[in-house]
Design brief:
5-stranded parallel sheet; Rossmann fold; 9-stranded mixed sheet; alpha/beta; GMP Synthetase, Chain A, domain 3; single chain
Length: about 500
């Protein structure tokens, strides 16, 4: 079954159940299916058809849901992109994907209003020269459009965040997506009566495939907000009585310190899910206390895997916070392998490999990168990890972030974890910078509550780390760059003047 068929089935099965809520609009499954059909008729009148790529540049709004499913109802391929992309980044994706149409939301239009393109350009809200209005695309045509594509058909392209270079298009089939959505339904008990709070961008695989598509599978309600703020999270949970939320760790940490949390009624929430990075034991305890929950669940995966991978349950956090768990989630397999593909011994560092039907078809129009990412049916994640005596997996670092200084391996995450325990340091990113003798040396970027003496920071690091791991370069910044899903971006830091920082040598 494909997603278009699921929308139509839910319209028959749960006609009056709310499917999508957001921006003051509320659509039942019957209403959503009707709007999807009408928008699909309009797109077809503009010669959009099977296999065409249509790019969505929209925040989490009901129009996203309508356009997303309408594109797929025609057998076209939907390409949701990050709402924070600049004009040049959007144009890169349009070119790389070979898009035939571009759909933008008025809330984001200022960033791309200078676009000059021969594509079919559609926008919500007020008209604009060269663009047709979103509202005008709908056709008063109730004739059902049936999409009978098999699950193996190409469905969606998501672009990676480009943390290590140009973004790559990750191509998924319907089966890939429905596999990981089904996993979350089972693992996180998503049911028809569930109400899913989706604040993280729908251009990212976790909110799109793990929540939005999971809701579609069972006929649950998706509550969309165009952005995330602690205020908005608290207010939306109270007003909509949501049951499931997925967010980056930073979303939990920011909300936990909000004054409203002392009196907030979050009792409707059954599952608090986080991913993108682990939370330390002190952070877990802080969040659990603030949110009054013992069901804080960590999920690990990556876009190329659907995302599917592992999970750390609420009860496991008591002793294994910071780990990504010890078992693969439903429909997935995991191994930590050495350079020759053998399972590592306890305590040995290896690369995490994932296998399952959630894994991508491949990188769009990039066979070379696809071949480099797979070893047989196993997807190489680029994450380095150790397995402890209880079988739990602990990420050491990204393979591409590994620093080799004087022939010795240094894992930035280990250095970051040590420095962030400083009482005044809020966040840390450690990178390797070129060194004429050692090959690379260690540099730490950090944000703190006040201006810190760099020699004091180094002395703190020396108390926590072996000498060869202690950063030689330090730079204090107001905040570290992050992508829309909350992950720290190291590529912009590498592009900075590495030797403009103060050295403590």
């Amino acid at each position: 079954m494909n997603s278009s068929q699921l929308v139509a089935r839910n319209a028959r099965k749960y006609p009056q159940t709310e499917a999508v809520i957001g921006m003051g609009k509320r659509y039942s499954y019957q209403q959503l299916d009707g709007l999807v059909n009408q928008f699909a008729h309009g797109l077809r009148n503009h010669e959009i058809g099977e296999g065409d790529r249509v790019v969505l540049y929209m925040p989490n709004v009901p129009e996203f849901a309508i356009a997303y499913f309408a594109i797929q109802r025609l057998g076209a391929i939907v390409v949701p992109i990050n709402a924070r992309m600049t004009l040049s980044e959007v144009e890169y994706v349009l070119g790389d994907s070979g898009a035939k149409a571009f759909v933008a939301h008025d809330l984001l239009f200022a960033a791309i209003k200078e676009m000059n393109s021969n594509l079919l350009l559609i926008k919500t809200g007020e008209g604009q020269t060269g663009w047709i209005s979103f509202e005008s695309v709908f056709e008063e045509n109730s004739t059902p459009i049936d999409c009978n594509l098999p699950e193996s058909a190409e469905s969606t392209i998501l672009y990676t965040s480009g943390t290590t270079g140009k973004p790559k298009g990750v191509l998924f089939s319907y089966k890939n997506i429905l596999t990981v959505a089904q996993m979350i339904c089972v693992e996180m008990e998503i049911k028809p009566e569930s109400r899913l709070l989706i604040m993280m961008p729908l251009s990212h695989s976790a909110p799109l495939h793990l929540l939005f598509m999971a809701g579609l599978i069972v006929g649950a309600t998706s509550v969309l907000t165009p952005t995330f703020t602690p205020d908005l999270l608290i207010d939306t949970v109270e007003q909509e009585k949501t049951t499931h939320f997925f967010g980056a760790p930073v979303a939990y940490l920011l909300t936990a310190k909000h004054p409203k949390m002392a009196t907030a009624d979050l009792s409707s929430m059954q599952w608090w899910i986080y991913g993108g990075a682990p939370l330390s034991k002190p952070e877990v305890e802080y969040v659990q206390q603030a949110f009054k929950t013992d069901n804080l669940v960590c999920v690990y995966g990556l876009t190329e895997a659907g995302p599917n991978g592992t999970l750390l349950t609420g009860s496991e956090h008591a002793t294994k916070a910071g780990s990504i768990g010890k078992r693969a989630a439903l429909h997935a397999e995991i191994m930590v392998a050495n350079a020759v593909g053998e399972t590592v011994q306890l305590g040995e560092v290896g690369e995490i490999l994932l296998c399952g039907e959630g894994n991508m078809i491949g990188y769009y129009k990039n066979e070379e990168a696809t071949a480099e990412t797979f070893t047989g049916n196993w997807l190489k994640t680029g994450d380095l990890a150790r397995v402890d005596e209880d079988g739990y997996i602990w990420i050491v670092d990204r393979k591409k972030d590994l620093i080799i200084s004087g022939g010795v391996n240094i894992y930035p995450k280990e250095v970051e974890d040590a420095l962030v325990t400083h009482p005044l340091i809020n966040e840390v990113a450690v990178i390797g910078v070129p060194h004429p003798e050692w090959g690379e040396t260690v540099k730490a970027y950090f944000a703190a509550s006040e201006e810190l003496d760099l020699e004091d920071v180094k002395q703190f690091a020396e108390e926590k780390l072996a000498h060869y791991k202690v950063p030689r370069l330090y730079e204090q910044v107001d905040a570290l760059p992050r992508n829309a899903s909350g992950k720290i971006l190291k590529q912009p830091l590498r592009k900075r003047d590495n030797y403009g920082a103060t050295t403590t040598d």
